[in-house]
């Protein structure tokens, strides 16, 4: 078996519209996932994340490029790939007229798991997702978050070697989100590989070992969350109240972004004293905090938009 | 060997079929309300033309079987468009052909009880010979194959449930109500008889009525109807499997 769980080389996808212009959803995406990694794809709506996930999970045929799962080509040998993967589709819902217990069990059985294995994995998944109390209620009667948890439980229970999760925690409360994170961490410890898309940047940071930032079908950044933050010129953010009117005084310290009356400066730890001195001399109050992944994301994607 | 014949994989079909049956049984009211149209027609005929009741009973069996295709259409479209469950299953070891046959078979089994009830009434009012039973069973199976395939294929063509509903009603009326399914073929003008025999629903009804001794047709007409029905059933079902495999991956 290939040492890589997934390897994509120059994957392109063009959607041919009927009577509307063609849409180039992926413009040469190349990436690789090692076994046991948790990787996040970040990007704006329409950046191409779901298109990539659907291609990698055999649901969509790329226009060109090569993509392999555990060494099996997803285009020419989807039958070899499918037993190795499981997918939480974006906005997927469980059968409304099955209970969560039936939903998970039936899916595992359809994947070919023996009865006893399917039963024990179903119970474990329901417990991990906190669905024991509603396990025998029809899904149609569950809340939106419970339905989403049932969907995630269905896929996580497979313990497939490669899991694709498209916005898996959307609509979940913070406790439920963390439960999903714990299960995903647990699965990767067991050797599963996880590729997820998310709009929650804190989730990407907390969960993924590496991340890819995608914009307009291209990969703009590949690396760790810390690496993304370093890319924007510093790891600290100094927010200066009413600093918007004194922008020129701080111009030499790093990248400054005005937000209302405030000025945010991205800088390295070594320059904090100098900036605080200037702020004190100008009688401006300033706070220091770490750069967030959101700021890094906005800056990296923003640069790309400006460049176009 | 059977599992892999013609490159097709059937593993998991039974489980997915059972899943669909379970889903439908949780919606038992839909199974009951599905009997309303043929039930109402049976009452009208019993009151207005009691001598045609056996023909109408056979018609309601054929109609109910064709209605399964409409249910396949609605179910397949619903779980694809609204729930995205097709993606959950297509990105799994369950093959697209098993998914298609699972839905079609699940609907058949789940909606069979009302038809069994009609069969009992038919047997009480107009007992069938063994040959008539065999013709009836074969024709119903063929109608199920045709209607399930039409339902599944149509379900994959649209992106919105509301767009699908009119087609669903159109197909049911076009195949189930307009041609001589609930009424004898003798009411059809002679120039239309060939067309009627070629349609799977009316062809099936005419064949069963003939076998049950309710309305005789010529040997050539029987041959035409039987051949058309068999060819349509086999060709469409094979096409359904091809289509299911094709549509499991978007292009």
SSE map:
The complex is a heterodimer of chains A (308) and B (251).
Chain A: E1 4-15, E2 23-34, E3 38-43, H1 49-56, E4 64-69, E5 72-73, H2 78-81, E6 85-88, H3 100-110, H4 115-128, H5 144-156, E7 162-166, H6 174-189, E8 193-197, H7 201-207, E9 210-215, E10 218-223, H8 225-231, E11 236-240, H9 247-250, E12 255-259, E13 262-267, H10 272-281, E14 286-290, H11 293-307
Parallel strand pairs in A: 3-8, 3-9, 6-7, 7-8
Antiparallel strand pairs in A: 1-2, 1-4, 4-5, 9-10, 11-13, 11-14, 12-13
Helix pairs in contact in A: 3-4, 3-5, 4-5, 5-6, 8-11
Chain B: H1 13-26, H2 28-33, H3 36-48, H4 53-82, H5 85-90, H6 96-110, H7 112-125, H8 130-155, H9 161-177, H10 193-198, H11 200-211, H12 219-247
Helix pairs in contact in B: 1-6, 3-4, 4-6, 4-7, 4-8, 4-9, 4-11, 6-12, 8-11, 8-12, 11-12
**Estimated radius of gyration of chain A:** 23 Å
Structural class category of chain B: mainly alpha
Order of helices and strands of chain B: HHHHHHHHHHHH
Determine the number of helices of chain A (DSSP H or I, runs of at least 4 residues): 11
Overall morphology of chain A: globular
Low-confidence stretches of chain B: none
Average pLDDT metric of chain A:
92
**Global shape of chain B:** globular
Instruction: Using the CA coordinates, give the radius of gyration of chain B.
Output: 18 Å
